[in-house]
Model the fold of this input.
Amino acid sequence: MIDFQAWAAALQQRMEGVLSDVLPQPSIAPQRLHQAMRYAVLGGGKRIRPLLAFAAGEVAGADPQRVDTAAAAVELIHAYSLVHDDLPCMDDDSLRRGKPTCHLEYDEATALLVGDSLQTLALQLLADRPLADAPAVQLEMVKILAVAAGSRGMAGGQAIDGESVGKTLSLPELEFMHIHKTGALIRASVQLGALCGKGLENGEMERLLHYAKCIGLAFQVVDDVLDAESTTATLGKTAGKDAEANKPTYVSILGANAARAFAADLHRDALQSLEVFGARAERLRQIADFIVKRQF
Done:
């Protein structure tokens, strides 16, 4: 087994090619919209969600070409969410992945359409290409991603986030928000990657989803600490935005040290849920390590 950094770098490069292929070419009308879609998706990002899809696919013995499509669909949803999140009506940010946000590089109307188009392209991919042996499983995969992106998932979490500005949330309330806002798409990444495989034994999908829930929360805890303590140059996006906007975060509720400890607890819980899989889940363990220990 090659080391994690080499594996992740190879998959990140692979996903760049897959995403470039599935996105409309910039010469196809409407050219400006297609250019903006490619600008928003290509050339940046850690591709955590595709890495999770491939790692879960390894647990389930999935064909990597099937996982390509599932991983691309999840990443397109993630990219759309970032484009919309950066708009003036949302977080009004100017920097994403070390370059100007989509609405500044193009314009607000184009950025809005970019998000709309990336979302529908993601669902089109899941419907277009063979991902599972049983049609019912593939239809379930479309539903999983749609729910994860919608009002009962990511968009709903973002709505709660907007309503919470200036308020003091309890820890359960903050967790509920992030289980939707950040966690829903992370859980979908793991679930879709596993469903590209040959099927899991009773209870195994539940163990994967528990892992994903823990890692999704840990991801947000670490993000909150990094936002509070890192620089804009390090993050590739504007640092300190949460405090400036008076948003409730794990740091504002727990303090930085307790937030780090909470992330460590979530990390241990995630790893325990993978014990049943043995060596098949090694990549999932490595991703958990990466998420929790990045730049702390």
Remarks:
- The two ends are 27 Å apart (CA to CA).
- The first strand starts at residue 95 and ends at 96.
